[in-house]
Structures are given as C-alpha cells and as structure tokens.
Specification:
211 residues; Arc Repressor Mutant, subunit A; 2 domains
Length: 211
C-alpha cells in the first residue's frame, strides 16, 4: 500500500503499473496481480481514507441534516489537505474521460453516501417537495468538482477550498430550502463570503469567463 501510494503521488496513475509496483515493494511481479487483479482495485485499496472518512463522519453529532452535509465537506477537505500531492493526482484522474481509476473513485457507494444526506434533508422538511432530489444532488456535485478542478490546476489556494465549496452548496441549497431552513443557510453564505473576502476573494483569482 505504501509503495502504491508513493507511485501515485510521484507519477500519477500512469506510473502505477503492476511491474513498477512490484519493483518498488520488492515483491514478485505475480504478487500485485494475486492481491488486487487490476490497477483500479489497487487505487480503491490505497484509498483507505475513504473508510476512515465514513467512520469519522458517523461519529459526528450534527443537529440537523443540512449541517451534516457541510460537516461532510469540511471532513473531506481535511483529508485532501493531509496529503495534497496524492489527492491532486487522484482528482486529475477524475477529470480524465478514460481510465478505471476514475471509475474507482466515482463509484455507486460514493453517490449513495451523498444521496442519503439529500434524502435525509428532504425527509426532515428542509427541502421543498417539488425539488427533484436527484437533480439537486447532481448540481451540488457539479459545483464540488468545479471547485476541485480549480484547486488541482492551482487556480484556487488550499485555504479557500472548503469555504468555496461550502458557499456554492449554501447558495444552491438556499434555492431548494423551505422557509424555516433558509435563515441558517443565509448565515452560512455570509460567513463563507466573509472568509473568502478576507482571503482575497475567489472571484479575484482569475478573470471571469466570457465570450
């Protein structure tokens, strides 16, 4: 596992061949095949942080379903910040149109984790009944990935990663929220907006796109 993680960090997934992994780990060429079978399986095994993430998330005692969503964002960013070189490589693979590494990272279990929080929020009455939960999930995920792309390419400093994602989520959820839940979301928007303004403002990192 240590050898695989080091290879991913140094060379990206392209450098994670079975032969290179066996050489780095000082084992026979048959060993990686016997243990894992494929490069995608190795990536999933290396991502032990996913299991640790879910364990830590389960230990959180958020008072309401929307707070749990923002807690999951902060927890995810903590993992990225703990090993940025490694996670930048993996997120580059997410933005690749091909490859089993992308499929290993973006898998049904990941979707189910985030979908469950949206369903929980809807069941608690936090979301308007006419809002399509699946489409809302996709919009939030699009926002998450766009921010991660800016971080991967160096357009967004690490300190701005969490507040930028939170701000986008709060703005999207505000449009879907029922009346009693709008106040807390508006407070979150103003709070993260202040943080980004103090850090220099996310919008000032690059000129706005246009025709």
């Amino acid at each position: 596992m240590a050898a695989a993680r080091a290879l991913i960090r140094e060379r990206g997934s392209a450098g994670l061949s079975m032969r290179e992994l066996a050489k780095r780990a000082d084992v026979s060429i048959a060993t990686p095949y016997n243990l894992f079978g494929s490069k995608g399986a190795i990536v999933l095994a290396v991502l032990q942080d996913v299991r640790e993430f879910r364990q830590k998330f389960a230990e959180q005692s958020a008072a309401d379903p929307l707070t749990r969503i923002f807690g999951a964002i902060d927890l995810a960013v903590e993992f990225y910040a703990s090993d940025p070189e490694f996670y930048r490589v993996l997120w580059r693979e997410v933005f690749s149109a091909l490859g089993e590494v992308r499929a290993a990272i973006y898998n049904p279990k990941r979707d189910a984790f985030w979908r469950a929080m949206i369903v929980e929020a809807a069941a608690a009455g936090a979301l308007r009944s006419e809002i399509d939960a699946e489409l809302l999930l996709h919009q939030l995920d699009h926002q998450f990935r766009s921010v991660m792309l800016d971080w991967v390419t160096g357009d967004l400093p690490a300190a701005m990663l969490a507040p930028t994602i939170r701000l986008g989520y709060a703005l999207i959820l505000l449009g879907a929220a029922t009346g009693g839940w709008r106040g807390p979301l508006e407070s979150r928007i103003l709070s993260d907006q202040r943080i980004l303004q103090q850090l220099g403002g996310e919008g000032r990192q690059r000129p706005a796109a246009g025709p």
